[in-house]
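Sequence of Major facilitator superfamily (MFS) profile domain-containing protein (Panicum hallii).
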Amino acid sequence: MTKQRKQRTREEQGGKHLHDRTQHVWLVTHCPTYPPGQPLVIHWSRSEQLSSEQNHARDRRWTHRENPCMAGPMEPEGRDAAGKPLLVRVSGSSGGDSHGSAASSSIAVVVGSTAVAVAGSFEFGLSIGYSSPSQLGIMRDLHLSLAEYSVFGSILTIGAMLGAIISGSIADRAGRRGAMAISDVICTLGSLDSLFPGFTPLLVPVYISEITPKNLRGGFATVNQFMICCGGSLAFVLGTFITWRTLAIVLAPCLLQLVGLLAIPESPRWLARSGYPGAFVAALQKLRGHGTDISEEASEIKVFTEKLHRLPKSKMLDLFQKDYIHAVTVGVGLMAFQQLGGVNGILFYASEVFVSAGFSSGNTGTVAMAIVQIPMIGLGVLLMDKAGRRPLLMVSAAGTCLGCLLVALSFLSKEQHWERDLNVFALAGLLVFIGSFSLGMGGIPWVIMSEIFPINMKGSAGSLVTLINWLGSWIVSYAFNFLMMWSTYGTFFIFASICGITVVFVERLVPETKGRTLEEIQASMSSSLTPFHK
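Predicted 3D structure, token representation.
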């Protein structure tokens, strides 16, 4: 038997096994010649980075290409497994590993920080829900034509596009808290139609994803969309009771957030990337609880950040390089499909849609939409970290497709003068659409966007995908009334087709990010970072 085969046989008998996609592995091998009752424990960052030179089990010499390995006696948990040839502990698995998980004592800090962040989301919801209940009053009081009101309705998206262009750069330079504070000042000075909406959709999910443990990240990040829907629903309801001028000056959430930002920690990942090691550790410790061991999570973030620092400084055009093209395709695609499915046209002009479908007033329908949104968002929050992102996205997109088809059939029956108008299909279709959208397509694209881009590209990537999102929103909100004049049922058949294509896009290209750290997700989508991941 050759020397190599003998060595391989000894390794197999000793239980040597490497897990291809493990970031932190404890290798336990029981050797009778090692000090009695003390199995050997080896810890390393990547199995591929580990090399072994051994003449005998008791004389194993383990080396690591980047960091020295740690070896020592097993803790009691490991001694129980000493009789087994091997114990592999994978980060995030069951068995007591707490890396990236939330300690109960730290939940209050994460919840409080999230609550402050989503105050901006609530204000954003008020902004996008403003156009629907105010349309008739604005057109009447200001003597606007349909074309002129379409311009007014799209002003929000124009300001948001300008905000999107600069929001990523500001978030990278001023930090997540600083950028949110700037957003609040802009909102307060400029009221609803300003640059403010271009900041919020990017900043809030990014901040939440960077402060929450991986086992809670999806649900917490979806609270962003929940509060947007709450704001939009409140705008729908208030619009039936108060004038459009009064509705335009509801700025309390911005002011509350501005004060709350003084009490919450900055994103630890931004602090690590920006060269504040002391503040990074302090912020992470505050978020995880002062009695929690954060060494493993801090080490992973630090190693990943150092690897990013060794890469060339990123520019917007770098997003289109091979390393990032998958992430860009997913981010841009989800944002485009989210808007081109027609959601903002429907939300902005819901009252007019119901009137066109044959209802005497649009108020009943818009209030019904508001009532449906909130529980469906809540369901999405509960399912996010259980069912996963991809299944919710596909079910959501399929539901919006069905909703658009029902509305299209309603308008088709009215236009073709069928024996019985199916205007109830319009109500049912819009409720199915808004409920399905709220379940997944409303919030999950923002969650995934905040997860897939490495922190050195997150500013420019976030600006790009937010710009695409608002560009799609502007196209739909501006063209919606003209499309309805062209063909009511044709408009919704177009939206149904786009929603159907979305299902295929998600199934083919969108990765599942549930239960993975941000570093794992980002490394898996970038060839320049895969040595860290594999």
